[in-house]
Amino acid sequence: MRVFYQKGIRVQRNGRELILDPRSRQPHAVVSHAHMDHLAPGAYMTPETLDVMKVRMGQKAEGIALPYHQEVDVEGMKVSLSEAGHVFGSAMIRVDDLLFTGDFNPSGGPTCGTCEPQDCHTLVIESTYGEPRFAFPPKEDVLADLLSWMEDSLETGPVALGAYEFGKGQELVALANELDVPVLVPNKMARIAEVYREHGHPLRFIPYAQANEEKEGAYVLLAPSRAFKRPGSAEVQEVLERGGRTAFTSGWCAVYDFRRSHHLDAQFPLSDHGDIDDLMWFVDACNPREVYTCLGYDEELAKTIRVKLRTKAEPLGKRWF
Ligand SMILES: [Zn+2]
């Protein structure tokens, strides 16, 4: 088996090829999840990812639904998907004795399951946080801290949180729903959250445009991060005028301080990815003969794997995009 990166992760065996997370529509492709840097139509993907893709790319963007733990033959190779713990519908991709993690998080999250290591010959692992300085507190602790900060803040006014339209946004809706206050979200985030509901996640939210008397009391507002830079969006301004507080949640908060640049009251290192300790634990537990790192700190992670685990490891390729 040969694996290399060229506009997607190409896996070749016996003169045949399939491609993982292609940059655009390709034959014989498999997609790990519905973040735009991994998503392309026409590929195998989980039914959840397929439904999110239709909201993000249009109803004509078709794909082939492959539920977790079902196996298909693609170009003579056995392909199956398993939970990646990153976002709703995210999958690790198994191709014969190769495992590609996609974006993953062993801790999982409020709107997805957790991922489990698998014995494999070749491991292709994401290295978004593949440097020693990226060590996060346990995810359940960060979620508890954020929830208690929201609860305190809501006693005196609304709360605005920065969030991507897919993944972190819906995760924060699920968390805010524990507080039983209205959760206001942008239109696109609401349309994607509807897909979660169709798949059994009982998220409660109100699109901005439909919110009215909900804004009179305490509420949680979700908005893209650019909406917090001054002058900020009208929705964030309204939160501030009502004496509200603002926060960001991201793994990057573990090392960067966004409070001054984005005028925030707080930030929380809440990540949908594993940190460096998760990455190293996962590699060790999969017991691979060879490892390829991709995305983010690929050189650094490969080196750490070689030194600490004494396992053959190298970056898959310098150019992801
Ligand atoms: Zn992702």
SSE layout:
Layout (H helix, E strand, L loop, with lengths): L1 E4 L3 E5 L2 E5 L8 E2 L13 E2 L1 H11 L6 E2 L6 E3 L2 E7 L7 E5 L2 E3 L21 E6 L11 H15 L5 E4 L5 H9 L6 E3 L1 H12 L7 E2 L12 E4 L10 H8 L3 E5 L16 E3 L7 H11 L3 E7 L1 H12 L2 E4 L6
The site of zinc ion has 4 residues, from loops.
Which percent band covers the strand fraction? Answer: 15-25%
Helix content: 10-25%
Largest sheet: 7 strands, mixed
The DSSP helix count reads 7
The CATH top-level class label of the largest domain: Alpha Beta
Give a written overview of the molecule.
Helix content is 24%, strand content 24%. The protein has 321 residues and is of the alpha/beta class. The protein folds into two domains: 2-134 and 273-315, Ribonuclease Z/Hydroxyacylglutathione hydrolase-like (Metallo-beta-lactamase, Chain A); 139-268, Rossmann fold. The strands form four sheets. It has a seven-stranded mixed beta sheet, covered by helices on one side. β1 and β2 form a beta hairpin. α1 (47-57) packs antiparallel against α4 and α6 crosses α7. The model has no long low-confidence stretch (mean pLDDT 94). Bound molecules: zinc ion.
